[in-house]
Amino acid sequence: MAERIIKSFKVLIGVEVHVQLATASKMFTSAANGATNFGAAPNTLVDPVILGLPGVLPVMNKKAVEWSMKVGLAMGCKINRHTKWDRKSYYYPDLPKNYQISQYDLPLCGEGTFIVPLPDGSTKSVRIRRAHLEEDAGKLLHEAPGGFTIDHSIVDLNRAGTPLLEIVTEPDLSSGEEVAAYGQELQRLVQHLGVSEGQMQMGHMRFEPNINVHITDGDGKVIKTAITEIKNLNSFEALRKASDYEIQRQMQQWIETGSLGKKSTYGWDSSREVTFHQRDKEEANDYRYFPDPDLPVVEVSDAWLAEIKASIGELPAARLKRYCEVCGLSAVDAAIIADDRATADFYDAIIAAGADAKRACNLLLSHGKRLANERGVSMGKLPITPVRFAEVAKLIDASKLAASAAGAVFDKLLEGDAPAEQVAGSLGLIQSSDTGAIDAAIDALIAQNPKSLQDYRAGKQAAFGSLMGMVMKSAKGLNPKLVQERMKAKLG
Q1: How far, rounded to the nearest angstrom, does the alpha carbon of residue 150 sit from its chain's CA centroid?
Q2: Which of 169, 247, 298, 374 registers the highest number of CB atoms within 10 A of its CB?
């Protein structure tokens, strides 16, 4: 048998992402949403609709529809003006009514393009195939509450019925690193828009990369491996590692056996860092889609669409670009601030209150970050107003407050909302720029220290620092920058 040789290869990865929307209630009932009540006792967020009892009827959650359109617009998707609900049938213990209300041929959001920043500073254009709205299923638990081992699975229906936006890309990604970058940017977007908490460890976002490889063999023939879908990845590290492992597994399988595999669903074993076969993949006709007779179609008017567009505001990528190009921040500092919407809004408000952009950034990422970490909140949630933050920045720039003393002022500002200059004054930190007082202090020091003056004029630069220190110590509260300027002038 001829040796199988890979001359070159091309990786194609598309991603399906399930985003739980953080509405107050579920998708088709008023029961409390499992996404915003994480950790509730099992099977307490249920009602007759979730249980699929006879005679119940679903009622559409308008807020979930609006938030889905919001995400679609932010990703450059076409919003379909006419859409409907379909029943996706399958029998599984976590779906009591034996079908899921979803969207099949008329999704809410159609084609779009999402720009993803990559770690090397470049960007990747990812085509969005569709984003459709559906209800989530429940969850099977394989351990009893309290961690007790059981020999069967138990069902928790708290998650069932949660509004779930499924976003599907074209196979435009080519590595685990790119897949992880896409996931991170999407998380940043939904958190920025306020439509999802986006906490992966809580199941708010679940990623399923679909992977195959186009192999060019030694004879120049292109061979395509079967697409495998890796289910329910809930960390960016797992997303990267699982994708990269599966690429290598498919190529190695072809080299060793000549097999291209079957269209299948795979899982990820994080302890061994390997993918494993779960089942062969279902086709669309296996789900027996048909329009849901209990729900009306959704018609999106021009006025409704315009209202949703107006609510989006500046997106994270645009904000990041503005911070670098207009505010002059470094890429690292800009990313830290733009990563959290509350923090970014807080920073913009500080600038709007008159602070220099770079000064505001430095104060926020030093003292703001310190105070936020101490209180376990984001920088944008600190109990100090943007106006007070700006006042501290302006005091420093006006040489009324030493930058090194800003921390004490911020600590005091946490206790109340007095003006920053008043607070700094009460702490004895306001610096005097009275040139008369400064000149008098310098003259007195020079008269008392003729040797230091002689040393300086003899070329000993250290003597200048010594004189500066003595002036600042003898007359507290003087503006050190102005003291230095006046000292140099007097010493010639």
Answers
A1: 37
A2: 169
Q: What is the number of other CB atoms lying within 10 angstroms of the CB of residue 375?
A: 12
Residues 97-114 have a mean pLDDT of 95
Structure tokens at 130: 């569709």
Confirm if 261 and 250 have CB atoms less than 8 A apart.
yes
Residue 76 CA to residue 123 CA, distance in Å, equals 16
Q: Does an H or E element contain 13, and which?
A: strand 6-20
Confidence at residue 1, expressed as pLDDT on a 0 to 100 scale: 45
Name 404's Cβ contacts closer than 8 Å, sequence gap at least 6: none
Cα 116 to Cα 13, 184, 395, 432, distances in angstroms: 15, 9, 39, 50
- What are the extents of the domains in the chain? 6-299, 314-426, 435-491
DSSP string for residues in 470-487? HHHHHSTTB-HHHHHHHH
Domain 435-491 = CATH 1.10.10: yes
Name the token pair of 415: 């206790």
Give the closest residue to 162 by CA, choosing from 31, 69, 57: 31
Contact 172, 158 (CB under 8 A): no
pLDDT on residue 433: 58
As given in the structure block, the two tokens for residue 213 are: 């490889």
Joined together, the tokens standing for residue 487 give 């000292």
Average pLDDT over residues 242-255: 97
Residue 236 has φ and ψ, to the nearest 5°, of -70, -30
pLDDT at 110 over 80: yes
Which residue bears the tokens 């254009």?
125
Print burial letters for 383-409: b (CB count within 10 Å at least 16), e (below 16). ebebbbbbbbbbbbeeebbbeebbebb
Q: In 3D, which of 31, 69, 67, 65 has the Cα closest to residue 51?
A: 31
As a whole number of angstroms, the distance between CA 287 and CA 228 comes to 19
Mean pLDDT of the chain: 89
How many Å apart are CA 11 and CA 214, to the nearest integer? Answer: 6
Residue 189 CB coordination number (10 Å): 21
Map residue 125 onto helix, strand or coil: strand
Percent of the chain with pLDDT over 90: 70
